[in-house]
Amino acid sequence: MITAGLDLGTQSVKAVVLKDGEVVARGKAFSGFDPAKAAEQALGEALKDAKLSMSDVGHVTATGSGMDMAPNSNSTVSMMGADAKAGVHLFPNARTIIDVGAEEARAVKCDDNGIMMDFVVNERCAAGAGAFIEAMARALEVKLEDMGPLSLKAERASSINASCVIFGESDVVSLIHRQESKPEIARAIFDAMADRVSSMVHRLGVNPDVVLLGGVAKDVGFIASLKRKLGVDVLIPDFPEYAGALGAALVAVKRVKKVSK
Amino acid sequence: MKNKSEEKKYMPEISQKEIDELRKAITATSQRVVAENIEKMKKADPNRPEAMQYFDEIADFATREKEIRAAKQEGKKVIGYMCLFAPTELILAADAIPVRVNSGWYDASKLGDRVVPVEVCPVVRSTIGAKMIALSPYLELSDALISVLTCDGMTKLGEILSDYTPVWAMSIPRVKDSAQSMRLWIEEIKSVKGQIEALTGNKIKSKQLKSAIELTQKATKAFRRLQDLRKGSPVIMGRDAMLVNQTYMWDNIERWTEKTEALCDELEKRVSQKNWACPPDTPRVMVTGTPMIWPDNWKVPTLVEEANPQGVLVADELCSGERLLYDPVGVDEWSMSDMLNAIAERYLMASTCPCFTSEDGNEDRINWLLNKIKEWNIQGVIYYVVRGCMLYAMEYTRVKKVLDRMSVPVYYLDTEYTREDVGQMKTRVEAFLEMLSARIDI
What we know:
The structure holds 2 protein chains of 2 kinds. Chain A is of the alpha/beta class. Chain A has 2 domains: 1-91 and 241-261, Nucleotidyltransferase, domain 5, CATH 3.30.420; 92-236, 2-Layer Sandwich (Nucleotidyltransferase, domain 5), CATH 3.30.420.40. Chain A has helices at residues 35-49, 79-90, 130-140, 144-151, 165-177, 182-204, 220-230, 243-260, and strands spanning 2-8, 12-19, 22-30, 57-63, 75-76, 96-100, 105-110, 116-121, 210-213, 234-235. A 5-stranded mixed β-sheet of chain A has the order 3-2-1-4-5. Chain A has a 5-stranded mixed β-sheet with strand order 8-7-6-9-10. In chain A, strand 7 (105-110) and strand 8 (116-121) form a beta hairpin. The model of chain A has no long low-confidence stretch (mean pLDDT 91). Chain B has one domain. In chain B, the strands form 2 sheets. A 4-stranded parallel β-sheet of chain B has the order 2-1-3-4, with helices on both faces. In chain B, helix 5 (106-112) crosses helix 6 (122-132) and helix 9 (179-200) crosses helix 14 (336-349). Chains A and B meet through helix 2 and strand 8 of A and strand 8 and helix 17 of B.
């Protein structure tokens, strides 16, 4: 049985193809101006990789902020529902699942069956999400992927107020004027982000195991800061940016079974 | 010397041309939004009760405006109010017309930004904006306003509006359960009674006050009957019931009561025929928090009832909704002093406004929520807050603790007076409803 999950995120579309519940291929495309086309492209790429065609797929479930635009999808699931499903599939003891994407951070609390019991989303502001790191990397004239490793070299912590991307940027500028080093500023940026994410998670309660998903889960700088702020270990899967698509594909498995019954 | 009465404390100078243009544009948007909301409500329940037609008509501001204007020409006075604590019985007893004047127009809040910072609650900013361009017929028709000093926003709103209209401020104690609080509040009630009498030129006599109390008691009875009908399988969509509740704020009370009773008659028939407004297993949702005011601020009820998966609103704890009229004035002896005491008691003690505090937190509100959850069989609560609504935002933590203990899912939904965030809100509302359904099956 083949199922697929599509995650139409704000920055990129991810596709995951499952065969009997196991991942056989992944695909990714930039959302750009035509997310529907990007979805087709991402799924097409994954299917090609797995040597399958669209007609082999039993059920496609879409998630992400653009889920209603997904072509060829049979159903949808909320981003929080997909996170819960993927988190518990990857780490059976996961009870708190954090997902930090390009423009949104959220946390889901779930029960033993991967069913979401509660969730929180960052308050209509990108300061706790990936776009913040991007903006700050520009201010520091550092490549996005170098931000994390750079921050780990910091010898001490300084702080900025990441209540908002714009204010965060002017705080960074004042650190530059104070001639703080780049590693310290980079760390301050991740600390500020992790602060926002961790206070959001605290509103749900920090129930181990804690799992981090989403594109930002690939950033070593953010991971280090988040672990410090939460005071617990944080589990990260391989391919964390595909977790939403994986969750959707797992929901598709359930749904295809329900139909065939 | 400059004429002191013409000096404005807050309001900026704005040219008549700009006023006219803005009013015209926002009124046009408002009419479109009213029509769209009603269209969506009709679509949500193709078999919508016939009695709703009356409420659709009165939801259009122009109909009631015309009536009130005519009454004013015959010498009647209009007294507006912002918070629910304004004793409408005293207004009615003096043969004046009570209307609530809080603004639900999103676009007007942007005008309010010229007077106060954007951090201020948008209900307040929008009401200021509405006044700047004479947008709200009820606010414009008011000869005086009763401003009850509940939250910080409302306290300053009255002060700002007094640039245009006489405002009678009423101090409300923040601790309900004490003898000195009640003494203060009774004095405030008596003092506003004097102001109403002076404005209208009508001395409030026992006989008139008794009839006014009886009038609102009848309205309360009809109001409660409607909410009780929402306890079982959904016989009316939440938005329809909310519109009925909300029109009480500006309608003629006697006629409103008749029409609401007629609606309830129709609904009772439907219950006996098991003729439901939506599938009986639709997740049952309650909203609580910042008031939601017609016509623009209808987005949360619309999102919930048009979501995929769908939800149905069966109860609320809103001062623009079920809190309006849930509690009757309870009088033992029909003497003037007993009636005034009963009015004071009803407005102070029955309120669940977050401006109050007690040792156990705002316990009356918690009890209201718990009672609703139990009696109305609520499966999930949406805690709705607009940015800048400090008291509701702060009280969330307390409410969530109590509801968590009872395993009742609650979601904090924050927004602004804007249409642009509907997409984001939809994601959250749908995730919440999915969660309610997932407790059954995913």
